[in-house]
């Protein structure tokens, strides 16, 4: 007799495993409440017992492997990604695999991945047992396998990206790219660019109480941009920084990379970014972040785009007074801001031309955040789950940091930009956030900037030319990269075409991808140019769009 067939209650175990797995997938992929998991499982188990799944009256055992094992595994991967990040971005998956995930700080994610793996193995074993012991399952599960493949958004996304290879026009975005300025400027201001991890402007909604109050107060003194939405390939930290500093979405190197399984040696070397533009103006450039610069090519990006000082966890940890005061990603924000203030003091004391400092916080990181001891002392105990606690912490520390620098006189002739790197991923208030019209934080403070609110249809691509414009750099037609300055009347691509159309073009784009990684595959770039020269715009493409190509 085959193993385990003699156990009296064997059908219960596979039914329970499949029912709980199905219920969990339903709650992850929808906005249904957590108790739906158990309701779904109960219905499934009830139907299974009623129909005697796994123990039919005319049972005929057959040793076979179900068709659905691979589709189930792939769907399990999709549910894991959706559960971990909220929105599944294939670009992020591909980029991190190639840029490297060393020092990712995600011990909790590793445990979650292990739990998912064990659950999927149990699910596959359950489906196999039912298929072998119930001929009805053997007859129907192959159709179930086809349905799983057709319904998996992960495979749908892969199909869309593959279709870009044969698209009629894979250079729609590339033709709209405008190189950033290289002209000199007088009385160049300093720049402090502060990325607040996942701290989107959506948190300012009344649903979230006073969590965003300190950034609201900060914005009342400066220029607040509303409507900076998130297009595809800009929804994770490196992608958000590249979009806002280079004016382009981060299209992974993918198959363009000559050694596809080797780590990248450069990050978007084919375009000039904020660091390149400011270095040409004689700026001294520094980046400081609490997490490792090895993760996702962060150090490669900043060093490759002419930053003089690039410091992350590895470089800063030896200087920390208490080496035990760290989290799984790296330094807490209060420690990081102390180091950033020290760096700004150094640059001011040298008095050797203008400076630009980029800072990346970590307190708001999904799923629960990493509030520092400073916040714990002020806000009380943190339960480890409520992201609003961490949002309040991040906003307050950013405000305190700016006010501290102002009191020391370190921000004279300085443009301060406060920016979320991207919209947050799955957090404790995910259902409330996703029910709203979400947008990123974008606040400017500095000499000559009068308090006002600007509401525009924009993306993080438009942040790049807006910063350059605010710093007094002359732009070509108020554009840089794929963005338009929000300080001008120049329409953005979103205002002209809409976000959905822009995302659709991105999925078909190949020429811009070659431009970003030019130097890794120069011969392919030349071939692309010879093709795209023959393509003309359709009337619908040109409708209401200003001439942006020179």
UniProtKB/TrEMBL annotation:
Keywords: Cell membrane, Membrane, Transmembrane, Transmembrane helix. Residues 532-541 have a biased composition (Polar residues). It is found in: Cell membrane. It holds the Pfam family Sulfatase. The chain crosses the membrane at residues 12-29, 35-53, 65-81, 110-131, 143-159. InterPro entries: Alkaline_phosphatase_core_sf, OpgB/LTA_synthase_biosynth, Sulfatase_N. Residues 529-550 are annotated as: Disordered. It is a multi-pass membrane protein. Residues 189-472 form the Sulfatase N-terminal domain. This is Sulfatase N-terminal domain-containing protein. The lineage of its organism: Bacteria, Pseudomonadati, Pseudomonadota, Gammaproteobacteria, Oceanospirillales.
């Amino acid at each position: 007799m085959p193993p385990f067939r003699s156990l009296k209650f064997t059908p219960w175990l596979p039914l329970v495993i499949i029912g709980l797995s199905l219920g969990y997938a339903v709650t992850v992929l929808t906005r249904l409440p957590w108790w739906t998991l158990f309701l779904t499982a109960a219905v499934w188990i009830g139907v299974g017992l009623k129909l005697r799944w796994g123990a039919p009256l005319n049972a005929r055992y057959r040793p076979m492997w179900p068709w659905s094992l691979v589709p189930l595994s792939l769907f399990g991967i999709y549910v894991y990604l959706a559960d971990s990040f909220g929105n599944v971005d294939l670009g992020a998956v591909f980029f991190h695999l190639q840029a490297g995930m060393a020092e990712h700080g995600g011990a909790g994610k590793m445990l979650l991945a292990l739990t998912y793996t064990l659950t999927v193995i149990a699910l596959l074993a359950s489906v196999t047992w039912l298929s072998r012991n119930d001929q009805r399952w053997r007859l129907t599960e192959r159709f179930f396998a086809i349905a799983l493949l057709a319904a998996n958004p992960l495979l749908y996304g892969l199909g869309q990206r593959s279709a870009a290879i044969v698209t009629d026009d894979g250079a729609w975005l590339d033709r709209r790219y405008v190189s950033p300025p290289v002209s000199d400027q007088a009385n160049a201001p300093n720049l402090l660019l502060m990325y607040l991890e996942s701290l989107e402007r959506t948190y300012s909604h009344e649903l979230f109480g006073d969590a965003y109050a300190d950034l609201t107060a900060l914005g009342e003194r400066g220029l607040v941009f509303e409507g900076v939405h998130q297009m595809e390939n800009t929804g994770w930290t490196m992608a958000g920084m590249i979009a806002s500093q280079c004016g382009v979405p981060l299209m992974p190197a993918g198959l363009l990379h000559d050694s596809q399984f080797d780590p990248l040696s450069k990050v978007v070397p084919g375009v000039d970014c904020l660091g390149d533009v400011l270095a040409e103006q004689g700026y001294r450039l520094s980046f400081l972040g609490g997490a490792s610069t090895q993760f996702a090519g962060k150090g490669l990006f900043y060093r490759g785009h002419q930053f003089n000082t690039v410091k992350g966890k590895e470089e800063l940890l030896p200087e920390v007074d208490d080496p035990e005061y760290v989290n799984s990603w790296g330094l807490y924000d209060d420690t990081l801001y102390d180091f950033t203030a020290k760096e700004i003091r150094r640059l001011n004391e040298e008095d050797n031309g203008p400076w630009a400092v980029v800072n990346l916080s970590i307190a708001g990181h999904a799923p629960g955040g990493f509030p520092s001891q400073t916040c714990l002392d002020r806000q009380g105990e943190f339960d480890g789950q409520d992201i609003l606690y961490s949002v309040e912490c991040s906003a307050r520390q950013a405000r305190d940091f700016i006010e501290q620098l102002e009191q020391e006189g370190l921000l004279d002739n300085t443009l301060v930009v406060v920016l979320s790197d991207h919209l947050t991923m799955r957090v404790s208030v995910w259902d409330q956030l996703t029910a709203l019209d979400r947008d990123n934080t974008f606040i400017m403070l500095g000499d000559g900037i009068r308090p006002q609110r600007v509401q525009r249809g924009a993306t993080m691509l438009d942040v790049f030319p807006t910063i350059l414009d605010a710093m007094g750099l002359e732009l070509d037609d108020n554009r840089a990269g794929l963005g338009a300055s929000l300080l001008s009347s120049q329409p953005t691509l979103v205002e002209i075409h809409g976000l959905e159309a822009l995302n659709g073009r991105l999925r078909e784009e190949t020429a811009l991808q070659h431009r970003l990684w030019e130097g890794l595959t120069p011969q392919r770039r030349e071939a692309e140019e010879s093709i795209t020269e023959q393509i003309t715009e359709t009337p619908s493409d040109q409708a209401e769009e200003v001439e942006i190509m020179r």
